[in-house]
Specification:
Elements lengths: L30 H7 L5 H12 L5 E2 L6 E3 L8 H13 L3 E4 L11 E5 L2 E10 L5 H7 L6 E6 L5 H14 L5 E6 L2 E6 H4 L4 H9 L2
Parallel strand pairs: 2-3, 5-6, 6-7
Antiparallel strand pairs: 1-2, 3-4, 4-5, 7-8
């Protein structure tokens, strides 16, 4: 088994890319409209929209980076954290698209693509004594996949419980991807609801 705690093999959400096809050419439909559409589409339609966004003509390779794309002009206070986490994702084989934040549209932070599979992630960087549970719950309504970048020591048992609470509260949640150093640990609902979850989580987290 690799560093992933568990990965769902199939679902009807953005993890599925095989039955959704978009022409491999730049998309010119308004990017803000596409981002807003994500709040109203599901299943294959959601995947279709994610891919349309990544093909949009506004996305350009980020200077000095590999496999990271943006629309430019990102002045987010969290930009350094966004870029650092994106670089780690690239090390794990992803192409990363930094999403803009149009006024009036609540968006996640990234689209990750690997082997034709598209996922949208919201980043939560944990520093100091930040509460993982509160940060996870704050992401509800943006995406069903959350990326947690752990930059501080955090009790692994408490972290496991925080993640479980997030899945219990957010019935649409599909994955929490935890960055610890150079490792990615993927936690799915199936794993959280399985036998000996806390014990298995701690074992993997401390590996």
């Amino acid at each position: 088994m690799n560093d992933d705690i568990v990965a769902e093999a199939f679902s009807d959400d953005e993890e599925v890319g095989s039955y959704c096809w978009v022409a491999e050419e730049p998309v010119t439909r308004n990017l803000d409209v596409l981002l807003e559409d994500l709040h109203y589409t599901k299943g294959a339609g959601f995947v279709w929209t994610l891919k349309e966004i990544t093909l949009h003509s506004e996305f350009k390779p980020l200077p000095g980076e590999t496999s990271i794309f943006s629309v430019g002009g990102n002045n987010s206070e969290d930009y350094d954290n966004l870029l650092n986490a994106a670089r780690k994702a690239v090390e794990h084989g992803y192409r990363v698209f930094l999403l803009p934040n149009p006024k009036g549209i609540r968006t996640a932070d990234y689209i990750f693509e690997r082997k034709g599979i598209y996922k949208m992630f919201d980043l939560k960087t944990i520093t100091g004594k930040s509460s993982v549970e509160n940060r996870l719950l704050d992401s509800i309504g943006q995406t069903n996949h959350v990326l947690i970048n752990m930059t501080t020591d955090y009790n692994p048992r408490l972290l496991a419980k925080n993640v479980r609470t997030y899945f219990e509260v957010n019935k649409q949640a599909r994955e929490v991807l935890i960055v610890k150093g150079s490792r990615f640990l993927s936690v799915s609902r199936q794993f959280v609801e399985g036998k000996d979850y806390i014990k298995m989580f701690i074992k993997r987290y401390l590996k």
